[in-house]
Amino acid sequence: MTDARRVRFTEPRTVDVEHGPVPRPDDGEVLVETTVSAVSPGTELLVYRDDVPTDVPLDATIDGFDEPLSYPVSYGYAAVGVVVAVGDAVDAAWAGRRVFAFRPHASHFCAAPDSLVALPDDVSDEDAAMLATAETATGFVMDGRPRVGERVAVFGQGVVGLLTTALLARFPLSDLVTVDRHASRRTRSRSLGAHEAFTPEAVQDSVTDRFPGDGRADLAFELSGNPEALSDAISLTGDDGRLVVGSWYGSKPVSLDLGGRFHRSRMRVRSSQVSEIDADHAGRWDKKRRLDYVLDSLPDLEPSSLVTHRFPVEDAADAYRVLDRDPADAVQVLFTY
Prior knowledge:
Layout: E1 4-11, E2 14-20, E3 30-38, H1 41-49, E4 79-86, E5 98-101, E6 108-111, E7 116-118, H2 125-129, H3 131-144, E8 151-155, H4 159-168, E9 175-179, H5 183-191, E10 196-198, H6 203-210, E11 217-222, H7 227-236, E12 237-245, H8 262-265, E13 268-271, H9 287-301, E14 307-312, H10 316-325, E15 332-336
Parallel strand pairs: 8-9, 8-11, 9-10, 11-12, 12-13, 14-15
Antiparallel strand pairs: 1-2, 3-4, 3-6, 3-15, 4-5, 5-7
Helix pairs in contact: 3-4, 3-9
C-alpha cells in the first residue's frame, strides 16, 4: 500500500494534505481505502473560513466532531471506498465490499462495520459520495410536507438546494420557483424541474405577479446559507404558510424585520437539520429508514450529475479556493484518490 493521506484545515483558509502510515484495524474494525469523497460546500466552507461558532460542536452526531472547532482539524462526512482489511473479530465477508462512511477526507481509515453503509451494485461511487447531501435534501422535503397544488419557493441553489428542488419537482405542485444570484445555478434549477428561477433582486415582484391571491408562497425553503435571504424568504411566505430554514449560518449574524406583517401572519418557521427525525415523523420513521430510502433512490436521482469539479486529494487546497472564490461555477466538488 502507498502511504495514507488526509486533508487538514490547519488555520483559516489554509488546507494541507498530511502523509503518514496506513492505519491498522483493531479486532472489531475494518480498513477502508477511499476511492472518492464529496465536499459539503456549505458546512466545509464555514470551517475553511473560520465562520463556525466557537461554542457549538461541528456535529454532535458524528464521531470525532462532538467538540467545538479547533485548528488543526480533519473534516468531511462523505467518503466512499473499499474494505481492504478486516480485524480478527469481523466477519470476513466484509472484505472487498464497497461502502459509504460519514468520515473526513482521507485515503484510508478504520471504522467499525456498523458505522458503514454497504453499497448496492447499481449505485456508482460518485452517486454514493453524495448520499449525505441527498439525505439532507430529503429531510428538508419531509419537514416541509409539500401538499397537492401548493406554491413553493426554494431560496439557494447550491448542491443541497438543487437536490431539494429535484425532489420537490416530483410532487403535484401548482408552482415551484427558485431563487439564486448565479445564472448558471438558475439554469440548473430549471433543468431539474423548477418552473422558473429568479435573482434575489427580482423575486418579490416576479412572484407577486406569478402567484395568484396574495402573491406569496404556501411553502418556502431557505437553503442559501446567506442570512440576508432569510428576510426575503419570510417576506415571500404567505399568511399561515410554512418556512423551512435549512441553512447553517455559522457565526454570521442574522438580522430580521419581524415588526411588520410577520407579527400577524401566523407563519410557521421551523429549523431543519439532517441529524434528527422530526417528532411528527418519528412514530413511523427513524434515521435508518430514511437513509435506506435515499440509498434506493440514488440511481434515479443521480446526484453526481451536479458534480462540476474533480480534484486529486493532493490538490485539496486548490479545491477549497475554487469553492470560496467561484461559487457561480463550483457547485459540487469531489476528491479522487
